[in-house]
Design brief:
mainly alpha, DNA-binding, 6 helices, globular, two-stranded parallel ribbon, 49% helix
Length: 98
DNA sequence: CTAATGACTGTCT
DNA sequence: CAGACAGCCATTA
């Protein structure tokens, strides 16, 4: 049952990311960054701001499709990647919201 | 049960 | 700055 708990926790964190900000896979699950990724690729949950989940270095996994959504939400860019200095929402901040 | 894979990450070349 | 490696967890073959 711990697995579902972990997944539910991750989903909740994803939902709590405010518009205009982004978070990383590592923040959603420091122990296994691949988990959030797998969940996002397999889950059928709707309305998830999956585009706000980016890599630790500010690059994103879904290429153009994601880039456009991010830009549309007014997320600051640093060249070709997301400006983490400004738009990054740390794990602690997400936990604090809940 | 073992091996391979994936929306990852930090460290080393 | 870009590419290669090894670690990490759960799913799939």
């Amino acid at each position: 049952m711990a697995d579902e708990e972990r997944q539910a926790q991750i989903l909740q964190l994803i939902r709590s990311v405010p518009e205009g900000f982004v978070t990383t896979y590592g923040d959603l699950c420091p122990e296994a960054p691949r988990l959030p990724g797998r969940i996002l690729s397999t889950t059928k949950e709707k309305g998830l701001p999956w585009h706000r989940i980016v890599r630790a270095d500010g690059s994103f996994a879904q290429g153009d499709r994601q880039r456009r959504l991010l830009r549309k939400e007014g997320i600051p860019f640093a060249g070709k990647r997301v400006d983490m200095e400004v738009a990054h929402m740390p794990r602690e901040a997400l936990l604090a919201q809940v």
